[in-house]
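May I ask for a protein sequence together with how it folds?
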Amino acid sequence: MNEDVKNNLVEKVSKNKEQLVDLCSRLVQIPSESPESDTRQMVKEIADFLEQIDDVEISFHTLEEPITNIVARIKGKNPGKRLILNGHLDTYPAGNESLWTHHPFSGHEENGRMYGRGVSDMKGGIASYLVTFMIMAEMRDSWSGELVITLAGDEETMGVKGTKYLLDTVPHASGDAMISGDAGAAKVLRFGEKGLMWIELNAIGKASHGAHVHKGRNAIDRLAEGIDRLNKELVSLKVNAPKEVTQAIKESSEISERYSGEGETEVLQQVTVNFGTIEGGVSPNLIPAKASAQGDIRVPVGVSMSEVEQKLKEITESVEGLSYHIFRQYEPNRSDINHEIFVFTADNVEYITGEKPVNTMRVGASDARHYRISKNIPSVNCGLNPYNLGGPDEYIEIEELTNLAKIHTLTAFDYLSE
């Protein structure tokens, strides 16, 4: 792309800054918390905007009410590649409203920031997509192929009724490459994610009075032993990651930890275990006959889920009365960072921000994994810095929102004009 075209596209985004900010604020003002993930009003607001664009195809898709998903498509001057802009409409719960300085769905601006639940994760990213889509429609005589927006509910609860459903049922929800504007940082592009395994540990003992420990078998003790061993032994599993993955993680460490916290580099390269729920027993003076706990295991590239399950099986079989059940899992996944979508995105981040971005893995989950695992579609995460993500007073910097829209627009044009 020559300098004049770049400048023209950037100027178009700048001229639409007020509309971009207003769009973001209006989306934040519509609650779409998960669970329930009622995205119907969000979809209506987005469709009202998209319907103003000439020759746009819009469709609505629902596997289970009230989760409504929306897909929009525009075409360039000639057949060509298809680029997907994928995002999610649902958010974390707002939580205790009294802890917020302003109402969690105010979408208000203050000191160059916008506040509200979901503003970073990821209604700001969606607003960026919509402005990108509008500008690309205006420029459709200058590029070929198709630009498609897929916006789904259910991401916070694993995306089965959202993005996965769209990929399974809507042919043009798949493409040649995908950009995810999910929460992150434009200067830290994510090319893959750790795998996930959710487990339930169950322990069986023998009930008795708490004073008569010689007559009973404590299920909580057995459960605790299993939890302790899983924490120690799974974390110690050897990781055989490809050289390019390890190199990318290490080279990005300084910058990625600036945004994502000290220790991310280590966490990306090891299995992690977190038990989030536990229950058992009925009274302090009774030996519990049963106990259970649910845990979240994250698995890096270089360790297979079968290896994790084998270790899980070894541990539970060695503790009397202990068993396990896996109720959700998927493998680690990644895209090739040499693919052109990464090259274009990185070039445009540097052009807009003046800083060269880094590529690394993502510790958490996003709908990008569905594109990688289900369709093997190269997928890059380039989103907004999340401030107070998941807590009170979630916010974004409006300048970063404007920059993100410039990056997305330039990258879409680059990719589809090649």
